[in-house]
Write a structure and sequence with these properties.
Layout (H helix, E strand, L loop, with lengths): L2 H13 L6 E4 L4 E4 L7 E4 L5 H6 L1 H11 L2 E3 L3 H8 L14 H4 L5 H12 L3 H7 L18 H15 L7 E5 L5 H10 L2 E6 L2 H13 L6 E5 L12 E7 L10 H10 L1 E13 L8 H6 L9 H5 L7 E8 L1 H17 L1 H8 L1 H19 L4 E9 L12
Parallel strand pairs: 1-3, 5-6, 5-8, 6-7, 8-9
Antiparallel strand pairs: 1-2, 3-4, 9-11, 10-11
Helix pairs in contact: 3-16, 4-16, 14-16, 15-16
Length: 390
């Protein structure tokens, strides 16, 4: 097939995926894809083989963008927002990508996968996260809220739902850099325990605990949630923010069992995680380059497991639109430091991470994914307020 036929074939293929008209430009050709005024122009510097698109549309387009083979005449998020709602039209050859989409869920491999993302370096994340180093959906109470204000509000939103009281014990499964735990210790006077698989997060939080003389009020451990069964711990409250996505389909019951086993009867569990409408094996590009092994649970598959582990559902809240804005804030910060990131990690890395942030923002905006907070009790709790105040 000559280059002319290849470009025409690509135009026809993309027309079935992108629901708006756009211009496709190659070194030798120009195509108007679709009908009506073009919404953007895509310049393709090198061939994009059809076989790669059929193997995985997201991998083919994502890798081409990373290489710099795709240039757009419009903001990346704005372009992605035009067609991310049509991701169900993307092609995925699951048999050809089986090893990518179905990785081992052993503790050793999951630790390797998690650390490959979170241990890129605290210096890297500090460039585009806010001062709280919160790497999860913020909560924008007001239109004028800064990212920092919204991340503090998210933390308070969670802690208020947990109805904390002085002297209670709180476990954070996947505690990140520890802002939520420290906030709980300072504001509510609880005894905090956090666990993480990230050595970078563990070391930073450990240093801050020592610097702030919190050793008798807050502990952090480098450990897998599956190790909780060996500790004999009991907590009044358990929280997990943005960790369930790393557990893996087939292990959600085990995760809930681990949380339930360390939670006192009547205790509360706040589960905050990215969710999907339907069960899905994951996006190949995200799994290869951003979150190896990451799987987004559907809301219904978690809800249906709760009774098996004596969890009663008290509240379910969607923060989907808050995550769109959070990601837009992160991307703005990322772009501010783009030159610095590119100098340290290279242009392909910088393009990859900007694509990740923009694509996720567009995915939340289009409802491809959601963000849910579930407030649960272990067994019956009749002591909580009867009305929702947060």
């Amino acid at each position: 097939m000559n280059r002319s036929n290849q470009a025409g074939g690509l135009a026809r293929y993309l027309q079935n995926i992108v629901p708006v008209s756009f211009e496709l430009e190659t070194a030798t050709e120009f195509h108007l894809v679709g009908t009506g005024p073009a919404r953007f122009r895509m310049k393709l510097k090198n061939e994009l083989p059809r076989r790669e698109l059929l193997r995985s549309t997201s991998l083919a387009l994502g890798e081409a963008y990373m290489r710099g083979d795709i240039e757009l005449d419009r903001d990346l998020y704005e372009v992605l927002d035009l067609f991310m709602g049509s991701m169900d039209r993307f092609k995925v050859n699951e048999s050809a990508l089986y090893s990518l989409l179905h990785t081992s869920q052993s503790p050793k491999n999951q630790k390797r996968e998690v650390t490959s993302h979170y241990d890129i370096g605290n210096d890297f994340y500090s460039l585009w996260l806010d001062e709280t180093m919160s790497y999860s959906c913020a909560y924008f109470r007001h239109e004028s809220d800064s990212l920092f204000t919204a991340q503090v509000a998210k933390t308070d939103h969670i802690l208020e739902k947990l109805q904390l009281k002085e002297g209670q014990t709180l476990l954070d499964i996947g505690c990140g850099w520890g802002f939520l735990m420290k906030r709980a210790v300072y504001r509510y006077g609880v005894q905090g325990t956090g666990i993480t698989l990230s050595r970078e997060q563990y070391q930073k939080l450990s240093e801050e605990i020592r610097e702030e003389h919190l050793e008798d009020r807050l502990q952090v451990y480098l450990m897998d949630y599956r190790e909780l069964a060996t500790k004999g711990w009991q907590f009044d409250r358990v929280v997990s923010v943005g960790m369930l996505e790393h557990v893996g389909r087939g292990h959600y019951g085990r995760f809930l069992e681990a949380a339930g086993n360390v939670l006192k009867p009547g205790g509360l569990f706040l589960l905050h995680y990215i969710s999907a409408q339907k069960e899905h094996s994951g996006d190949p590009w995200i799994r290869k380059y951003i979150f190896p092994g990451g799987v987004i649970p559907s809301l219904r598959e978690i809800i249906q497991l709760l009774p098996d582990h004596d969890f009663h559902t008290l509240d379910v809240e969607s923060l989907r639109r808050h995550y769109t804005r959070t990601l837009q804030c992160w991307r703005a910060n990322f772009l501010t430091h783009r030159a610095q990131i590119e100098t340290k990690f290279g242009e392909e890395f910088a393009r990859m991470w900007e694509l990740y942030l923009a694509a996720c923002a567009a995915s939340f905006h289009n409802g491809v994914v959601d963000l849910h907070q579930l407030l649960l009790s272990r067994g019956i709790n009749n002591e909580l307020p009867m009305t929702r105040t947060v």
